[in-house]
């Protein structure tokens, strides 16, 4: 048997091992370039995507604020509140309103000499300050949601359908 051929040196024309290291190096560079492109794509697309996701929320908020400025309050003005009837609480009024011992807004009892209001439409009794702070926001009774009428308003409007259900009154809040 003949002896195996001696190993060839790199200078003799065989395939040199540095080619494999060049392929590995190019592969690493290619992977790095691809990773950089993916990261750039991610960091460019992420702000755009978030912008388009948040845009409807911002527009809805802006629309809501514009509606609030065009209709700042659905309640009475202080000038209108002065037109509502008021009286000082006494023993005579206590007997007339025996069903209500306390204000339904602040839950404090009625005392002699306190200013009160008795709503015309429904007959509920409240402290004047409590009811006025409520009526600035909402023009209905805090208990039954009946629309509060001013003195000069025609009382027949109460009978003609301005009385609200509990659900409709909740929409005023």
TrEMBL record:
InterPro entries: Znf_RING, Znf_RING/FYVE/PHD. The keyword Acyltransferase does not apply. It is an enzyme of class 2 (transferase). It catalyses: S-ubiquitinyl-[E2 ubiquitin-conjugating enzyme]-L-cysteine + [acceptor protein]-L-lysine = [E2 ubiquitin-conjugating enzyme]-L-cysteine + N(6)-ubiquitinyl-[acceptor protein]-L-lysine. Pfam families: zf-RING_2. GO terms for cellular component: membrane. One of its GO terms (molecular function) is ubiquitin protein ligase activity. Residues 103-145 form the RING-type domain. Keywords: Membrane, Metal-binding, Transmembrane, Transmembrane helix, Zinc, Zinc-finger. It comes from the Eukaryota. Its EC number is 2.3.2.27. It is found in: Membrane. The chain crosses the membrane at residues 28-59. Belongs to the RING-type zinc finger family. ATL subfamily. This is RING-type E3 ubiquitin transferase. It comes from Hibiscus syriacus.
